[in-house]
Design a protein that fits this description.
alpha/beta; globular; Enoyl-CoA_Hydratase/Isomerase; single chain; 50% helix; 12 helices; three-stranded mixed β-sheet; ClpP/crotonase-like_dom_sf; Enoyl-CoA hydratase/isomerase family protein
Amino acid sequence: MTDPLILTRRVEGVEHITLNRPHRHNALVPELLRPLRQALEAAAESEAEAVLLRAEGRSFSTGGDLLGFRQHRKNIADYADELVGLLNDCIMALNGLPCPAACAVQGQVTGGSLGFLLACDRVFMSRQASITPFYTMVGFSPDGGWTALLPKLIGRQQTMHWLLTNTRHEAGTCRELGIVHEVVGHDPTAAAGQWIATFCTTRPGARRRVRELLCNDANTLRARLDAERESFVAQIQSAEALEGIDHFLGNN
């Protein structure tokens, strides 16, 4: 029997949600994103005081699994539409939580997995971690909030430069850009837990009001994420993207 791809547990009112596909660097497939969406929706409906999103293994998540795209080459448009649609649902669920959300990051973050960081309220990253887009290297169109959320944090020009040059940004640079809030030399999960503990003694009703006021543009975000999905699906059918998948996987 295989292990579940999403693990959940409640610890003193905090919902811990863990990506559990470490043998593939927690790369995204529908089988992981469906239970992740369910876990986030359940957390929103519960009395959780906070959500802590983390991952098992060496990497937080390396974005959409290229093996999955290659295995679904004959119906790649439908597969990509489902995958990015599920990713968008998870980003929307994180962004719309009635309670604060922290993200603990280790190792690599690539592609659409950046969206998890962008949708959380506080991001803790280990000193050895990094973020790389990889879209133009493979031949994909950006998803996961790279155009829907990131420009609000770092600006349009900075976002475009990062995507077009496929630069790898280390943890310190990510903090300077405002994507990451704390860089730690120890376990980022422990640091995230300490941050959560600082506000769990405050009034929950007031915390929810803060979230409601700060996350009141859901329709605009959904529209921008849908535009990313449509662009991603159109581009992944191109010869450029299909060749890029094979080249990246070493089968060209």
